[in-house]
Amino acid sequence: MGVVVVSGTGTEIGKTVVTAAVAAAAAAQGRTVAVLKPAQTGLSQGEPGDAQEAARLAGPGVTAVELARFPEPLAPATAARRAGMAPVGPHEIADAAAKLAGEHDLVLVEGAGGLLVRFDGAGGTLADAARLLGAPVLVVAPAGLGTLNATALTTEALRARSLEALGVVVGSWPAVPDLAARCNVADLPESAGAALLGAVPDGSGSLAPEAFRAAAPGWLAPALGGSWDVDAFAADVAPVG
């Protein structure tokens, strides 16, 4: 996996922390890692963005790259237009990721919001960048009610574009999961048509970086460089009855 695109089923569901966890697990194996954030929205210049936050958690050797920043918390195409700035399109994303892949063992491209959010005025999306790169897409999903439909729609959109869904990671697993979350552990792979590859505990992004790096491999399946066992996890959280 030279390049992996990280997309969510929506926004604010843990993409950055999952990206950091995958980066940390790869770095622990001695791999060189870069995190690419094509378009950071909703932050002013000087504030740490998602790529910087992922690198902070994952380790000092992880490279953080941001292609563009727009101040308003909107879809990248809209934020760029309102700021009077040039957008970042799929070809620019793919070119930047390919360049980083020539210098790193693993490049993680973290999207903005969901898979089909527009990046430019021509309607270019993260899916288009993944297609140009020939890269698999890791889907980050929430744990609870509503996630089955959103995850199925995302993976269906990937298949419609002949893109590979690498798997699904729950971006924020609650300390006390409700019935829907516990049932979804078994139901998500079937709905998604892709393997469940991890569950990152809620609040993990607030851990000290050293603690985060030590714990990250335990949240991710071997396919992502970790030791997490989906069968053991599902048995542990399975609802009674």
Architecture overview:
- The chain is an alpha/beta fold and about 240 residues long.
- About 40% of the residues lie in helices and about 20% in strands.
- The protein has helices spanning about 15-30, 50-60, 75-85, 90-100, 125-135, 145-160, 180-190, 210-215, 230-235; strands at about 5-10, 35-40, 65-70, 105-115, 135-140, 165-175, 195-200.
- A seven-stranded parallel β-sheet has the order 3-2-4-1-5-6-7, sandwiched between helices.
- The longest helix has 14 residues, at about 15-30.
- The radius of gyration is 17 Å and the shape is globular.
- The mean pLDDT is about 95.
What is the topological layout?
Layout lengths: L2 E6 L6 H14 L4 E9 L8 H9 L4 E8 L5 H8 L6 H12 L4 E9 L11 H8 L3 E5 L5 H14 L4 E9 L5 H14 L3 E6 L7 H7 L14 H8 L4
Helix pairs in contact: 1-2, 4-5, 6-7
Summarize the structure.
This protein has 241 residues and is of the alpha/beta class. It is built from nine helices and seven strands, in the order βαβαβααβαβαβαβαα. A seven-stranded parallel sheet has the order 3-2-4-1-5-6-7, sandwiched between helices.
Defining key terms:
241 residues, 9 helices
Task: Give the number of helices.
Answer: 9
Unreliable stretches (pLDDT < 50, length at least 5) are: none
Using only C-alpha atoms, the radius of gyration works out to 17 Å
Number of strands: 7
What do the pLDDT scores average to? 96
| Strand-pairing-aware structural class | alpha/beta
Strand order of the largest sheet: 3-2-4-1-5-6-7
- Give the proportion of residues in helices: 25-40%
Please state the overall shape, judged from the principal axes of the Cα atoms: globular
Beta-strand residue percentage: 15-25%
CA-to-CA gap between the ends? 40 Å
In terms of quaternary structure, the protein is single chain
Secondary-structure element string: EHEHEHHEHEHEHEHH
- Largest sheet entry: 7 strands, parallel
